[in-house]
Design a protein that fits this description.
Elements: H1 6-27, E1 42-51, E2 67-69, E3 76-84, E4 99-104, E5 107-110, E6 113-114, E7 119-126, E8 133-139, E9 142-151, E10 153-154, E11 159-166, E12 181-183, E13 189-197, E14 200-208, H2 210-213, E15 217-227, E16 231-238, E17 248-256, E18 260-272, H3 284-296, E19 300-302, E20 313-322, E21 328-338, E22 347-354
Parallel strand pairs: 1-13, 14-22
Antiparallel strand pairs: 1-2, 1-6, 3-4, 3-7, 4-5, 7-11, 7-12, 8-9, 9-16, 10-19, 11-13, 14-19, 15-18, 15-20, 16-17, 20-21
Amino acid sequence: MRYIIGDKWLRIKGYWFMVIGLMLIAGCSSDSTGTEEQRTGSLLQVTAYTANYQEKSPSMRTVSAGYSEYRPDHDLAIGLLVLPLDHTSGLPTEFPSAKLVRFSAGDWHSQVTVDGDTDYKIFGYMPKNNSISSEMSQSGNDYQLILSGIDAVIADDVCFVTGVKDGTKEGAGDLLQGKFDYKGKSEDNHVCLLMDHLYAALRIQFKVDPDYSALRTIKLKSMTLKTEKATVNAIITLTPNNAGADPVKSITFEPTGSTASATFFESSTGVQLNNFVDDETGTAEEKAAAAREEILSAFCCFAPGVLGLSDALTLECTYDLYDRHGNKVCERTTPNALHLSAARGQFVTLNLTIAPTYLGQLSDQDLDNPTFTVN
């Protein structure tokens, strides 16, 4: 048996440490929304716009009418399906998988490349993550986007691309829905995306009954939306046009699995809902308005019009109860069954009144002004 000793052993040992280190680096290059691929061609920069949640109308919609630039308050990703077209027929030559465009550090960062003097049709969806898979196909004038495995209820917005335009970071110009064509350039590629909502959204506004406020102060700690379906497959059929008309021909939802939940509001200390007072931090009216705005800004999305889903939702609210002297009495979680009728792109605002059906439990401090006497 021969032994390797001295400098030769150190050289061999160092070589294998280097190999293992490179393997570890390569193994850590992926993330939850896709891996960066070897790039060829020119990088395609992206600016995204989404439709404002509202009552939808069939009229023509442009960036200046019903859309606003989309800048989420947390990291999020778009999946772009960039289809190269045949110069003669104008039909896709292939259907590549979705490429990643990530929003982080206040801007969109693209992993998509295009070739100069090449025509494309661009489709897409949001959010792109490991749960949702996508598939694109074409038949005649229609393009079909199938999204599988979308959470039935989700705290993120769920959108799909309804129009694209060659543009700049500073503006989208006359970006209209229905147009999906983009011509690649050898450099300075920037595409503006119009996105519309696939789901409806729920938000909550609380009111505390005055009789309850006389005895309890309530601090909301969390809101969770639950449903009897786990995921949804969405089949979206789009018909491109050059007139700015709505390209959506049909959308079909297929619910799967059982039970899902999404927590869309959390506060470790709780957001006070009633009994505000004037002090050095602000007036009672200002504090009440700030609390309403904080709660209203939180929303949860759900697939609309799906039997066993939008008609079978449960809202669970967790809050702390305090007596009149600021002593915490208890923590409560209350379920509320919801039967919502909404279309995609609509906000449903529920006004919930907390009535004095119970006090949680009596506090010793409640006895300082008793409403009964014992003879």
